[in-house]
Amino acid sequence: MLFKKCLPFLLLLSISVAAFSQNSDRDLLPRIGIKGGLSIATIIKSDNPDVSSQALFGFNGGAVLQLPIGRYIAIQPEVLFSQKGYHATGSNITGDYDYRRYLNFLDIPLLLRINLAKEFGLVVGPQYSYLLSTHTSFKSGGASYQEDVNNDNSNISKNIFGGVIGADINLNRNLFIYGRYTIDFKNNNGDGTSSTPSYKNQVFQFGVGVLL
Q1: What CA–CA distance (Å, rounded) separates 129 from 112?
Q2: Which of 36, 82, 126, 140 is the most buried (most CB within 10 A)?
Q3: In whole angstroms, what is the distance from residue 110 CA to residue 79 CA?
Q4: Which carries the bigger pLDDT value, residue 46 or residue 101?
Q5: How far apart are CA 161 and CA 186, in angstroms?
Q6: 85 near 107, Cβ under 8 Å?
Q7: Are the C-beta atoms of residues 107 and 80 closer than 8 Å to each other?
């Protein structure tokens, strides 16, 4: 009699455990996805204090791979297109000027992901960046010019290592939003002039991602 009364409860418990086990096993499988969003790029100047830099807005996006090594830790490499640069204002012999440098990078971060909860994870790790192209615009008084900078110029570093720290918020199993802060560990080899100040890139990134 007692067994008959407990049988429905035992069946429900068995189904719940089986479902939880399947979901847990599924969470340990590798996953690939895409993400994209807004970049807010600025610089850390290592010289030329007369240059006043401001934020430059751009795009970041690309592919994401999650490789779980447990329920709470995963390795997360990414391959991203990232727009960086800065907007600078100042004065020279021709008067006030407005200078904008747009930098297009291929970023490859190798991140350690720590899942603090099902809905929240922290990421941190190194990043390799390769400069794809550079575009500048300069206005001073009545003069202005725009040009694409030769990336073979010895005054520009094409290969840069940096670091990344950030967080992901999972809206459901497939959709997440992210925030990142990235910074270069190396200067760009600039000569310290108003047109090419020596600096390190730093970028705040925000966006949405989808995991398959």
Answers
A1: 18
A2: 82
A3: 9
A4: 101
A5: 7
A6: no
A7: yes
Distance, in Å, from the CA atom of 188 to the CA atom of 160, rounded to the nearest integer, reads: 8
Whole-angstrom distance, CA of residue 147 vs CA of residue 42? 20
Sole residue written with tokens 């925030």: 179
Task: Write the CB contacts of 197 (distance below 8 Å, at least 6 apart in sequence).
Answer: 43, 45, 47, 48, 51, 88, 190
Q: What domains does the chain contain, in order, with CATH numbers?
A: 30-211 (2.40.160.20)
Show the tokens assigned to 13.
């418990």
To the nearest 5 percent, what fractions of the chain are helix, strand and coil?
A: 10, 65, 25
Angstrom distance (rounded) from CA 2 to CA 34: 53
Rounded to whole angstroms, how far apart are CA atoms 47 and 96? 20
Q: Are residues 90 and 138 in contact, defined by beta-carbon separation less than 8 angstroms?
A: no
Look at residues 81, 143, 71, 85 and name the one whose alpha carbon lies nearest to residue 106: 81
| pLDDT one-digit tens code per residue, 111-162 | 999 999 989 999 999 999 999 988 888 777 666 666 555 444 556 788 999 9
> CA 147: distance to chain centroid?
27
Compute how many other C-beta atoms are within 10 angstroms of the C-beta atom of residue 160.
20
Decide if 174 contacts 210 (C-beta within 8 A). yes
Query: Rounded to an integer, what distance in angstroms lies between the CA atom of residue 23 and that of residue 209?
Result: 21
Residue 131's contacts (CB-CB under 8 Å, 6 or more residues apart) are 103, 104, 105, 151, 156, 157, 158, 159, 160
